[in-house]
Amino acid sequence: MRWAARIGSLFALAWLVLLNPVVGAIFHLHLPRERVAVLVAVLVVYSAGYAYYCLWGYRRRDQRFVLALVAGLSLLALAANELSMVRTANPYLIPVLVAGFGLTPGRALTAIPIIALVSATEPFIGLTVPPEEIVAGALTLLFEVFLFGLAAMGLRYLLEVQAELKAARAQVARLAVEEERARISRDLHDLLGHSLSLIAMNGELASRAMPEGEPGGTEVREMVRLAREGLREVREAVSGYRQPTIAAELRAARTALDAAGIQLDVEQAAGALSTETEAVVGWAIREGVTNVIRHSGATHCSIVLGRHDGHVQADVLDDGQGRDGAVLGNGLRGLTERVHAIGGHLEAGRRDTRGFRLRVTAPVANS
What we know:
This protein is α+β, with helices and mostly antiparallel strands. It folds into three domains: 3-162, no CATH class; 175-241; 246-363, 2-Layer Sandwich (Heat Shock Protein 90). It has eleven helices and five strands. It has helices at residues 3-13, 20-28, 33-55, 63-84, 90-102, 105-121, 131-209, 217-241, 246-259, 275-296, 330-341; strands at 263-268, 300-308, 311-318, 345-350, 356-363. It has a five-stranded mixed sheet, with helices on one face. A hairpin with a 5-residue loop joins strand 4 (345-350) and strand 5 (356-363). Helix 4 runs antiparallel to helix 5, helix 5 packs parallel to helix 7 and helix 10 (275-296) packs antiparallel against helix 11. The longest helix has 79 residues, at 131-209. It is elongated. The model has no long low-confidence stretch (mean pLDDT 84).
């Protein structure tokens, strides 16, 4: 996890301070011991669920998980209020925060008003005060909690825009490098390739015209051999420059998946890689996306690139029907050979939930 993500997680965890009124009730109100024990247990589960989301759960794209977490935190907030007898809107702000940050806009705009309505009405249940005061207080709380949820949605939008801008800058840089590689490849092939081909051909004709044992014949044949060797090396260099790149494969993947009606999420945190490793990762993306389109029947695909302990890890995941990696064909076998050639490792198979995962782990730099 990068430093910005760590700071963001710690900042999100700091919102647990909103539980201060409920925690204060434990120390300042004379509650029965049994009630205090249950209240402490509720607060522990509440805090643990929210901490899990802040540290790891926010990466999950499953909306059912977020909805379940929001519903669970809301019920725990209701229980904490009733057990502490404080009945404040504060415990509801965290599930509102999770809903605004983790749910899609449509679902968030449904969940937030419901939670806000509960948080605004619960404090006034059973109070013997004039109705106009209840209405004014409830409307104020409703408006405040709803604005809090909108602020969480706005924060998520800003973070997504920032990530897209950063990815766009990185892609522009990679495209510039890719274009320069293509230019050098063309120049090598057009200039050196053409010249060496002519030298080899003319040298071959000259060697055939010279009688055996004629002075200079050995030198001509050596010239032909060197010209052909140089031509072979130029072609190998051009082939190396034309290896697949991560940027090009991600663009191709997005285009192909869009055409197939499959939603794509990309998380690119691999950083700079050696040419060999980047080529293998590019092949992995190509093979994984091809299998998703042809075989999975998926509606959603994720490509996650990260770096761990000197290795790059590339995951291509889908939510399709899933199947045994052993039955896949030549494409996966060929990719396995490429990965093993640079000291990497490949895993392919069903996911724990639904769908299929192709994972390639390879050294960042080859020795």
